Each structure stands twice: as structure tokens, then as C-alpha cells.
DNA sequence: CTTGACCCTCACGTCGCGTGAGGCCGGAGG
DNA sequence: CCTCCGGCCTCACGCGACGTGAGGGTCAAG
């Protein structure tokens, strides 16, 4: 029962004592003093702030309303304006809170979509995938693609696009791809020569269509052409359209690249 | 098919055109340029920013991630660091969003409590009220009090306190009030004179107990004393404790006020 | 040549403090 | 007496993502 460090019967508490009592920082008290929201009625000769019981009363009200998320200006109104519409201000604040919750929930839903896209590469159900991509589609492909390419910049960009695509959009992409592949097959059949304007137009068109997945530079396209030929799965796909299409495609891509000053034999993905 | 105002085939779009296409403000584009997040690759001779197709690509990605709530620094990482853990960043963001939703929901609950307190004055069910305040309690009183005093500073302060009180706390308040009233009755019976130290101590104690509702100045206490005597409801309550207690209470309050330099006949509530 | 729409670069304001920097005050110990 | 340490003071900048002018060039059309 010795003299307590912060006796309640003195006529004022210092900032540190108040800060402990109310659970706010000293800086906050300084700030509220600066802006005139809650000032101590006393100062010691040395300039120390001294908060009286009445000041504590007011500070406590400030803390209460701050915990409700009101801005300092609004709190000032509530504390000082006897005509302040406190219930109105509270309801307005409530409405704002609901709004912000809504926005955050939509934001969370968007994040979930994007995370899903990053993890699965495709946001369609197996049935939707079958309906959109046709019978030759293998639902394991996205997972396999992620295993191979997950973590690359291109996978990230692909996922960004996937997140904003529904069945409709995917159908349009699949249609464009199918249309291009038909055109490639027809051109090869028609004897279009690598390096010819027609071949180069097709190469250009391939880059544009492929941009549905991610932006493709000409160098990357060269690598892609070589992979289409070398990878058994891709080769089988293209040669299934026309025998030799994979090799022919590589040749028209290489020719187009050369025409743009790129050596296809040394071109790298990045 | 005339020349469009923002032809897509020119080699750059100005800030205004980009702003319309992407739905962001011109200032945001300036800002992203300033901080180096997304700069135009071209400028006209006059200094106009010109965004190329590639720039638009990058801008679009910025917009996407900004809509997911990522900070500009994090977006920069995602766009530029090929080793950036994009799914990780997204999940961290998701966790933050959930946290913020939680905080907002708690905040909303607090607001609801406070609004309720402002509107009803008491957050207890009718049964709880009966259990806490005893059989002579009338559940219409809070509503009536709000009709009379709603909108005053004191009602607001009373509501603030009510919002943070449960049945326990109300029981303590009711107990303190009952105890005080017993003491008042006993003192009157014992012939305590208005103006005596004992009477003044009781007046002081009344102010302290009453502070459970809202802070009471001595002037306000004087008005209260007069109302206790004049209002039939209050008078009946106090005279029900002891015949003449309302009038005696007014007299001890008046005397205490006079002893503190207040003229009870001209004292006003505010 | 003028007009009006568009563009530029500063540069301060927002909101509620956090975080030092530099220095004074006050009580305890040597 | 001096010193030390913890607490207090007053500046004053920083944060995050721009909003909002001020003051002044630029461009296409009438």
C-alpha cells in the first residue's frame, strides 16, 4: 500500500499512464491533442501533459468511437456538437462497413478464381471441358502442363487469362485454334512454300491465336515449332491433322523467323 | 469507316485513350509511370506518353492484379521477377482479405450494438430486465426515456455505456442504486439535516452512482432533484421508499449546491 | 486564328498515426 | 554533488495510391 506509481488521486495522469489505462499509444494521445480532438486540461511547469478525470472521460469516448471505425472528424462532431445525429452517423458508418465487406468478399472471390487458375490452369468442370474441347481432349493435360511449366512467367500469364474465361470464351479459343489448324493443313496440301508470304501470314496468325494463352515472341514461336516436332504428343496431334504437318510447321516458322533476322537454330525461349 | 479517333494501328495510344480502354484514371497511369511500374515505351516530340501494344499488355496485367487488391510493389514483383511466387502471394493476399473481413464484421457487430443501445437504451431482453431490476421495473421505461431525452448529449453518453454492459453489469448498477436509496431513506429517518456533512456525502455518492448512466454536474443534479420531486412518476418512486423522500432529497441537493456556490433556484441543466 | 479538348510537369492533400532525432525533466543511486 | 535511466517534450518526415488543382504547352477542327 505504498505510494502507487500512478496514483488516481493526483489531479492528472501523464501520457504514459493514460496510454496504459486506455490501451492506446502515446503518439495517438499526442495526435489527438495536436488536432484538438482531446486535449489535456493541464500541463506541468515542464510542459508534461496532465489528463484530468474529465479528460479521461472524453478520451474514453474517443476510444469507443474509434473502435467503431469512425473518423476523428466524425468523433469530434459526436463529442462536441449537441445537435449531432449520432444514430445517423452510426448507421451511415454501418452502411459503409457493409459496403466494404461486400467489396472485400468480391475481391476474395476474384482471388479464389485466380488461385484456382494458377493451380489447375482451367476453371471448367470435366464435363464442360469435354463439351468445349471435343472428344480428343484429355482432362489430364492442364495438370500435366502445370507440372511442366508451372512457375514460369508464361504459365502465370496463361492463368491470368484463364481466370477471366468461361466456357463461352474457351469455345471461341478452341474454335480459333481448330480453324487455324485446318488452314495449316490446307496450306501444306496446297504446296505452300516456307518463306512465302502465305506461309508467313499463317505463322503470324498462329502467333495471334496463340496469344489467347500468353504473348508469344517470334523466338518463342521457333522453340514451340521445334517442340511440336520433337514431342511425341504434339507431333502425333499435328501429324494426325495431316501427315508431316509438325515438320512443315517448324519449317514455315523457321523461315519466318529468318526473314526477321532471327537464327532459328540458336533462338532461345527467353 | 472513317479514321477512328483512337486508331489501333497507330504505334501508340495516349493516356486518355488508354484510360478509357482500361477503365483507370489518367492520374493512375501517370503514377504508375512515376514509380516505374508501367511506363510507356514511347513519347511524342511534345512529350506525350504513347503506350504500345506491349505496354497495354503490361498495363492490363497491372489492372488485373490491382483489382485483386495487391499493392504496387507486389505487382511489380509478379510482373518482373520470374522467380516470384505468384500463387503464394495470392494466397497471402487471400488470407489478409479474410482477416480484414473478420475485423469489419466485428466492427459491424459493435456498431449494431451501439445503434441498438441508441435506439432502445437497454440491450437486455424483457426477461433479463425483470431478472435484473426486480418486479417494480417497467419495461416501457427505456423507450419512454428515449422519447423524452433521445438526441441529448446525455442520452448519447448513456447509450455508449449501455452498449458495453451486459446483465452482470446492470445488476451491479441496480444494486448500487438500491443501496444508495436505502441509505437515503435511513438518513432521512435518522434526521440528517440538509447541509450537514453526512447529507453532503450522500449527495456526492448519488452523483457517483448516477455516473453509471452519464456524468452528472452539480447543476444537473439540482435539476434532477427538482424533477424527482415534481414528476409524479419519480416522486411516487422515492416517496414509496420513504414518505417525503423526494422533497428531502431535493433539499439536501440544493444545500450541497449552495455550499459550492451554486444558486439552486437558477441552476440550469447545461 | 481561335477554340476547346487533351496533354505535360510540379506539388500539396489525404488519414491516423509510426518512427526516429534531438533534447529536457525527474527520481534513484554513487 | 554528479550521473544515469526512463519518461516526456517538440519537430518533421513517411506511409499508399493516387485526387486535385495550378500553370502552361499541343493538336485538330472550324
Automatic annotation (TrEMBL), chains A, B:
Domain HTH merR-type: 12-81
Listed InterPro entries: DNA-bd_dom_put_sf, MerR-type_HTH_dom, MerR_fam, TipA-like_antibiotic-bd, TipAS_dom
Gene Ontology molecular-function annotations: DNA binding; DNA-binding transcription factor activity
SUPFAM superfamilies: Antibiotic binding domain of TipA-like multidrug resistance regulators, Putative DNA-binding domain
Origin superkingdom: Bacteria
Gene3D superfamilies tied to this protein: 1.10.1660.10, Antibiotic binding domain of TipA-like multidrug resistance regulators (1.10.490.50)
Record keywords: DNA-binding
Protein name, per record: MerR family transcriptional regulator
Organism per entry: Nocardiopsis sinuspersici
Lineage, opening ranks: Bacteria, Bacillati, Actinomycetota, Actinomycetes, Streptosporangiales
